[in-house]
Amino acid sequence: MADDEPTREAQLLDAQAKAERLFAEIEERGLVTPGKGERAVSDRVRDLANELFGMTRHWHKRIVRSGPNTLMPYRENPPDRVIGADDIVFADFGPIFEEYEADFGRTFVLGDDPVKRRLADDLPKVFAAGKRFFDSDPDITGKRLYAEVERLAAEAGWELGGWHAGHLVGEFPHEWIDGADVESYIAPGNDTPLRPTDKAGRRCNWILEIHLVDQAREFGGFYEELLTL
Predict the structure, then answer these.
(1) CA nearest 94: which of 37, 49, 44?
(2) Is 93 exposed, middle or buried (0-12, 13-18, 19+ CB in 10 A)?
(3) Rounded-to-integer distance, Cα 159 and Cα 162, Å
(4) What's the rounded Cα separation, in Å, for the pair 201 and 121?
(5) Which of 95, 82, 81 lies closest to 17 in space, CA to CA?
(6) pLDDT tens across 23-52, in order?
(7) Cα separation of 13 and 60, whole Å?
(8) Measured in whole angstroms, how far is the alpha carbon of residue 177 from the centre of its chain?
């Protein structure tokens, strides 16, 4: 695509706004409820996205995970699980709107478990602190931001659930920085600055992912959205 920078940024923000509305509708319509299977909920969200926006494509697999499945990082494929009455559930979707990728994740707590509710409350706080850290350093690397997110998680009493804390996002198909795959992630192995430009001289945009887990209690939560806009 040959969109200029303001257009690219506007399209990414519009894609995220639609994803945010989709997740608000998930909650308002009570799609995440006890007794439903994770795949059934995922399919219902897929249908809702089509109903609201005529959207039928996702750039990554649709994820709804509950209970111990919330410990699993993205690349795992745990068996389908029926959501329980006192579960914690997260959803991670990558819808494509007008050829631009969104990547959006939120956590839902069913019941009144205070530890699960505290984890859910901590997710946006860790995200916001990680974004402030990113904004404070124009030369920040993926390695340094990952280390800070890991520190923030530990400070709040949690662990990180995955090997990275975010990735590039842009036009579909998914964008990559020149070089090794790790340079496309906010990860310990990425010593490159997160504010380079691609081969066309365009700004690279990033998603920040916060996956907090409590291994002892066997649950986790997830929160993600745009970092750079």
Answers:
(1) 49
(2) buried
(3) 9
(4) 38
(5) 95
(6) 999 999 999 999 999 999 999 999 998 898
(7) 19
(8) 19
Is residue 168 a contact partner of residue 208, using CB atoms and an 8 Å limit? no
Q: Kindly calculate the radius of gyration of the chain based on its CA atoms and give it in whole angstroms.
A: 17
What whole-number distance in Å separates Cα of residue 51 and Cα of residue 58?
Answer: 15
CA distance 122 to 130: 12
- The 3-class SS string of the chain reads CCCCHHHHHHHHHHHHHHHHHHHHHHHHCCCCCCCCEHHHHHHHHHHHHHHHHCCCCECCCCEEEEHHHHHCCCCCCCCCCECCCCCEEEEEECEEECCEECCEEEEEECCCCHHHHHHHHHHHHHHHHHHHHHHHCCCCEHHHHHHHHHHHHHHCCCEECCCCCEEEECECCCCCCCCCHHHHECCCCCCCECCCECCCCCECEEEEEEEEEECCCCEEEEEEEECCC
Residues whose CB is less than 8 angstroms from the CB of residue 136 and which lie 6 or more positions away in sequence, other chains included: none
Q: How far apart are CA 104 and CA 125, in angstroms?
A: 16
> Is the separation of the CB atoms in 204 and 175 below 8 Å?
yes
- Of 212, 196, 208, 202, nearest to 107 by C-alpha is 212
Please say if the pLDDT value at position 227 is more than 90: yes
Give pTM, 2 decimals. 0.91
Amino acid in the structure at residue 214: D
